[in-house]
Design brief:
The chain has 118 residues and is mostly beta strands. The chain has no helices and eleven strands.
């Protein structure tokens, strides 16, 4: 079992920056993805960015060029640097880890609120 603990959310004005952090309780072994999803009120949870253990990253079109995902395997952590924030980025952001073996095991963090005011 893996516990994910997020930090770094908060309130910021449009154009500002925030950095989210997510620490896993243990080392993630084998092929995996670490990433971030978000859910705004009344909307479905959506992918923001993922980082594959093979070295590739994927971003939602809405955040490309503004957000950067990175990971530190030594610290079992994944980060999301969010720049040029917009009010539409307001959501609860969830850390996600998927471990690929014979089946896929998915872990979620508890979520951290990001609020961007205009």
């Amino acid at each position: 079992q893996v516990q994910l603990v997020e930090s770094g959310g908060g309130s910021v004005q449009a154009g500002g920056s925030l950095r989210l952090s997510c620490a896993a309780s243990r080392r993630i072994s084998g092929p995996n993805e670490m990433g971030w999803y978000r859910q705004a009120p009344g909307k479905q949870r959506e992918l923001v960015a993922v980082d594959n253990s093979g070295g590739s990253t994927n971003y939602a079109d809405s955040v490309k060029g503004r957000f950067t995902i990175s990971r530190d395997n030594a610290k079992n952590a994944v980060y999301l640097q969010m720049n040029s924030l917009k009010p539409e980025d307001t959501a609860v952001y969830y850390c996600n880890v998927e471990v690929f073996s014979l089946w896929t095991t998915t872990y979620w963090g508890q979520g951290t609120q990001v609020t961007v005011s205009s």
